[in-house]
């Protein structure tokens, strides 16, 4: 069964259409890679699935865990178990990393989470990600380095336990140690949560430890090719040229 089923999705920002009839299926617990040239619409796809109100869905359907989510508000979609890690995580002054995650978990489960239990769980998870415990009490992403922001995203992933996580270039611009730790966190998510992954990436390092079930090529707001794990290496060797529209 599919955790995500997108059919003929058209989405626009103001009067500019960015997704032109996109189709994509991701099986429950599977790991899929999305590749595509800059400006193809990869981040737009992630934001549209997550209910970002800047993107208007004009037609098509997005089914998540069997339910239509197109047009639903972002907080409702997150509660259903969808998670996205953005290319550029936003800084939120006045809310600590710890409080942000606890509130998100409470919204997700609809239950009060005892502070003591939460702190224990958070500390243990931060250890996996080699994060200094003091980061829990710092304002969300404020003054964090690029690597620290990405670790904070993976921390949310491990604490929230979504059934589908979209990672938008989570590995871009990170040094080798940060990539190693982020990869370790993603592996931990696969092993302990068993959720599905949609990984938008140009690199291969974070895929090394994962079993990739499928690769999709996104060009000009559409999925133009689908393949297996070997497609990642094929594209890195040969580029996107053969997937681009032919000049008239
Ligand atoms: P990718 O992530 O594949 O590099 P994006 O989804 O960020 O591509 O962008 C796809 C296209 O949509 C680009 O042409 C970009 O300029 C345009 N776009 C993205 N966000 C906006 C926005 N907020 N306003 C106008 N155009 C946008
Ligand atoms: Mg890009
Ligand atoms: Mg992008």
Descriptive account of the structure:
This protein has seven helices and twelve strands. Strands 6-9-10-3-11-12 form a six-stranded mixed beta sheet, sandwiched between helices. It has a four-stranded antiparallel beta sheet with strand order 2-1-4-5, with helices on one face. A two-stranded antiparallel ribbon has the order 7-8. It is α/β, with parallel strands linked by helices and 248 residues long. The model has no long low-confidence stretch (mean pLDDT 95). The termini are far apart. The longest helix has 17 residues. It has one domain: Rossmann fold. The structure holds adenosine-5'-diphosphate and magnesium ion (MG) (2 copies). The site of adenosine-5'-diphosphate has 12 residues, from β2 and α1.
Describe how the helices and strands are arranged:
Blueprint: E1 2-13, E2 16-27, E3 31-35, H1 42-49, E4 56-64, E5 67-68, H2 74-79, E6 82-85, E7 92-96, H3 97-109, H4 115-128, E8 139-140, H5 146-160, E9 164-168, H6 176-192, E10 196-200, E11 214-219, E12 222-227, H7 230-238
Parallel strand pairs: 3-10, 3-11, 6-9, 9-10
Antiparallel strand pairs: 1-2, 1-4, 4-5, 7-8, 11-12
The structure holds adenosine-5'-diphosphate (ADP) and magnesium ion (2 copies).
